[in-house]
Amino acid sequence: MFSPAARKPHLAGVTSQKGRNQQDSPSTPIEDARHSLIAPSVPGRPLTGTPAPWSSRLSVLARFQSVKEANRTDTSKQIEPVYVGEFPQVVRNAQAHVLQKGFDNSCLAGGIDKGTSLSWMICGTQLFIWSYLSDAAVPKNCIVLKIPSTVADMNFNVMDKPGRSWLVCVVNWDISSRKLFEQCNSAGIILYNRQTGALAYWSDIYSESSHSPMVSLATQPLEESDRSMGLERFNSIIATAIPGNSQECLALACQATGGLWLFKFSLSGIHQEMISLNILNSNFNSSPVNARSLVWDPQHAFSGESGLRFFVLTDHEIQYWNIVLAPSINVQKIWSHEIVGNDSQLGIKKDLAGQKQIWLLDMQLDDRGKEFTILVATSCKDRVSSSNYIQYSLLLMQYSLGFSIKNSSFTNERILEKKALQVVIPKARVEDEAYLFSTRIRVGGKPSGSVVILAGDGTATVTSYWRGSTRLFQFDLPYDGGKVLDASVFPSGEDNDEGAWIVLTEKAGVWAIPEKAILLGAVDPPERSLSRKGSSNERVVDEEKRSQGTRGNTVAKKHSYEGWGPSDRQQAALVAKTAQDEEAEALLGRLFHEFLSSGEVEDILDNLREKGAFLKEDETNVFTRISKSIIDTLAKHWTTTRGAEFVASSVVSSLLLDKQQKHQKYLHFLTLTKCHQELSSKQRSSTLIIMEHGEKLFSMIQLRELQNILGQSRKHLYDSPSHVEASGSLWTLIQLVGEKARRNTVLLMDRDNMEVFYTKISDIEELFYCLSQHVEYIVGRDQPFSIQVQRACEVSNACTTLIHAAMHYRDEHKNWYPSLEGLTPWNCQHVVRSGLWKIAYSIMQLLKEVEAIDMPVVSEMWSQLERLTDVLLESYISAITAKIELGEEHQSLIVEYCSRRDELLACLYELAKRLTQLKCLETHIGVDDLDRKEAIFREVTEPLLLIAKRHEAYQTLWQLCYDLSDTRLLRSLMHESVGPKGGFSYFVFKQLLTSQQFSKLLRLGEEFQDELTIFLKEHKDLLWLHEIFLNQFSAASETLHAVALSPDDSLHPTAEESPTETKRFLSLADRRRLLNLSKIAAAAVSSVLIGKDMYFEMKARRIEADLQILKLQEEIISYLSDGVDVNDVDRPLLPGELIEICLKEGSKELCLKAFDVFAWTSSSFRNSNKSLLEKCWRAAVDQENWTLILASTVGCSDEVTMESLRETVLYKASQRCYGPESLIYGGSFDEVLPLQKVDSESPNFGDSSLSVEDILKQHKDFPDAGKLMLNAVLLAVIEDNVIVEEDIVMESR
């Protein structure tokens, strides 16, 4: 068999002392002869086989041996399967009864259901069902079902292998309500006999009323002539529960030739229907196509609308089907993927050279339903020797990139793509098809990606992929041990995590195969079969010995495994061991033990350097490994006690103290040998892990003392010692942690949960993980409120005790620690923070549920929540610091930290108020005695104030100061807390602004001038008041000017206005007032500073211009007709907008207002909007009917003509822009658009430098009334224009 190299049965020495001779018999002897079955005298039994205990006393013996093996440093002793449990006694009795009747045990059938962790076995006419998760060495709760004689007709011998004649499906009814570590308590059983074609159904095996099954018999004997009618036996059956229907399920059964049957099981009976005579295509190689197996699609649960989706493995392809049950049964093939086809370029033929025939034997899907594992057997011929052989391979397939199962049909596409093709056995003996088709596979166990191959003759081989090659580990039993009936995966304590492999044997009970055994004990694939045939052949035995002799150092050579997950530290540390690591670790262990006895440290550092002890970091470092082995050492004598007796003993405390003493000596050893200095300078993470081992050990000692104190305090409540410990939430939490470790480490499965917890000290983080996952279960949400509070506070105290103890150890040994830059201590990891937050949140929820709580309860909850808040927030700070130092993304962590900080402190603050009220009532303080109330409140909230100051919890600090009306404390905190955006000062300013306490806000500006100036940059309507207080009149003038002209600004309400209105928008009158205030502030500048008169004049003129524009805006809006929509009339419009409004309205008055707007803007505005100015002149000349004016002035005197021209818009516009009394800000219109060009003989209308005269010449009436137009323009210009100087600084308008 494929057994690990250099391995000896760990019970061989024990059994050989009995001195009894073992008979050469392939059958299991009776009870009295079960003592020397594994003696080496068994023919063909390799010395490296799996130990096979038989007697009922085996459990204690195997467990004791496991402890010894766990403490040995020899790796070869740690690569054996672990015995999990014995068969129930009723099963042993049934086996003995069958033997007494002369039947061979090969008629047995058995299996393991992965979903329910139920084992089942058929012996004679009885079906036995039990859970292998039972804590007892021999399971006591075994359900015995009597198989009806019509179903178990043993005289109907159609099949040559009776053990393979049974198909069993377990239907779990309570899958949605399974609690933590709770065994299945409601399940149905479907049993099918392939010999008789009969089917039995037990609706609920846990119900006494359901032990009589419903039976469905075959309509007639299954003869060869009936195959064409679709009546042959089923070779695969799968079942699923119907959601929402009590104890009702559906099953699909497939015949080899493609007949598909649907069964519906209910309390009323069994309904069966053939829904398809042949779901297969029979055109492959012109020969019949056979169906191998059925598999449900894990991605699509059963529903009434989508129906049932399942996969069919045929002898050449995978098919995907859907059955819709309502309104009528409809069978539809969604897609198929050919694996073995005529085209050598498709499928796997091109990857298997020299094949004569290919068989697809079995298929399994992973739990996600995304990866297919197919066992392939290939018949080949050796070209050299011309001998035939069979090659076994594992084909791994996955969905193609971009494939979506939502599409209805993909018949013309390649649905799947090959992920890998692993050759398991390169050359194996030729087997018949009956043997090949009896081979099955199982997937989903550790190591990740490993597969168990169950051969038809009862062997189990685990395949794993390691560094590009396939490795094999065979679970090997002698013939006396019987066959391997089935394999499954041990349930893991974590979601989406893989468990160890579990093997159900025919006679040797249930075994587990540890991951370490597979990784370290596996060998390269030999060129031989998976079957047992020839295992007693002397030539084969010699070949095995030679193979083991040449591969004795396989463990040292193989040190990497591609299947392990990156987050599994233990697996990483396990796989990454090399031969050099082994030598360095062995040397370090020997040198340390020599140091303990002699105290000598000469040349140790150089020797360790030569062995490469300093090459690796983290958990793979040999110094870290030795440190971990010290604190995780198992105690041999712990198994003598159980439960509360174990806890009550002093064994735990004494062992923990021994470990602490030894670890302290280890630290001294590292210091004296200067290894500590070497590690601290080059491998800081390894040094930190070693020191954290000391932290965790010290924390565990403190936790043990706390548990002793809790036990003593309960003694007066309970008489039973077991009730003392089992009544607390800390006990519950310890049980959960120990159970999780037991389930994930098969070597610990026979240990008590308490033993495991106090042994796996390096995994103390698991306590916080279990707390985060099962806090409601631990607190007992179904218990009364007082019990919940007690349990929550107990667990909270345990958590804070652990963290405080670790921090104390860190402070006491701070000189031993390396620089923590970029390193995250264990207490700052996400799993620890999550656990602390869960219990803190649970306490907060309890506080919200009940208002009236007694004083002691409130005081205890306050104390626990305050301690939890402190350690949790400190953990966040360290984690954030580490991420910043490493340059990693940390914003999300900061957001989470701030959110939880505020929530915790807010709850603490409310709890402090309740506690203060209770203390006042307790001390009979009157309502009017405010001073004593304030003193109590200050005393209660002192710890809260310190936490809030350390973590910049500004809301809490503000609330404290506000409720105490303590301005002195407020100002002190504002000076101390300086953070981003002004720190606490900024927060206080914002609070005062929100509450409209503007006088208090501005009063703080006396002491915090710069801080308030920065804050009010975003609130300019208040900034100018602070600037005036600071005598910054120039800045105040600019601020007022900006606020007055800001289009989106608003004012905070005054004291006289409604306090409910946070802000009101500025009206045009408000803006004029602000401009006048700006003018006053500018005047104050000139009065304070000598030589600033020019500044005031320029500033005053600009302000006056803006006042005029605001006035014009009011006038323009008043002229508008009702049909013109102007949004937000109080918003200051831009000059361009005002001018466009005037031109759009088209009236004479608004046309002249446009020129007024141009006059009060700056020269830069007029230059940049010259085209708009030209548009205004064109609009002005269009206002008159020049032909009519010309006709009315014919023959009139010049005075009459001039009087008519003075009434025109053209005259008034010319007078406003170019007249002697025109007021213009910042230059003249001549600079932009002169009235006439002096040297212009003929106007060029494409020229950009036009004049008013050129614009007039473009008018249609200019040829006739051009003289009148020019006279109107020039008549207004009599004297030089009055030009107003422009302020260069404010020319931006």
Description of the structure:
- Residues 984-1122 form the Nucleoporin Nup133/Nup155-like C-terminal domain.
- It is found in: Nucleus envelope.
- InterPro entries: Nucleoporin_Nup133/Nup155_C, Nucleoporin_Nup133/Nup155_N, Nup133-like.
- Residues 14-28 have a biased composition (Polar residues).
- Helix 22 (830-849) runs parallel beside helix 24 (891-922) and helix 36 (1135-1145) packs antiparallel against helix 37.
- It is extended, with a radius of gyration of 46 Å.
- The longest helix has 32 residues, at 855-886.
- Strand 7 (187-193) and strand 8 (199-202) form a beta hairpin.
- With 1293 residues, it is of the alpha+beta class.
- The strands form nine sheets. It has a four-stranded antiparallel sheet with strand order 1-28-27-26. A four-stranded antiparallel sheet has the order 2-3-4-5, covered by helices on one side. A four-stranded antiparallel sheet has the order 6-7-8-9, with no helix packed on it.
What is the helix content? 40-55%
Poorly predicted tracts of residues: 1-77, 156-162, 224-231, 531-576, 639-644, 720-726, 1054-1062, 1240-1247, 1279-1293
| Count of strand segments | 32
Structural class call reads alpha+beta
Kindly state the mean pLDDT as a whole number? 76
The share of residues in extended strands comes to 15-25%
Q: Which value, in Å, is the CA radius of gyration?
A: 46 Å
Count of DSSP H/I helices: 44
Query: What does the largest sheet look like?
Result: 4 strands, antiparallel
Query: Largest sheet, order of strands side by side?
Result: 1-28-27-26
What is the first-to-last residue Cα distance?
96 Å
- Bulk shape: extended
Main location: nucleus
InterPro entries: Nucleoporin_Nup133/Nup155_C, Nucleoporin_Nup133/Nup155_N, Nup133-like
GO biological process, one term: protein import into nucleus
Protein name: Nuclear pore complex protein NUP133
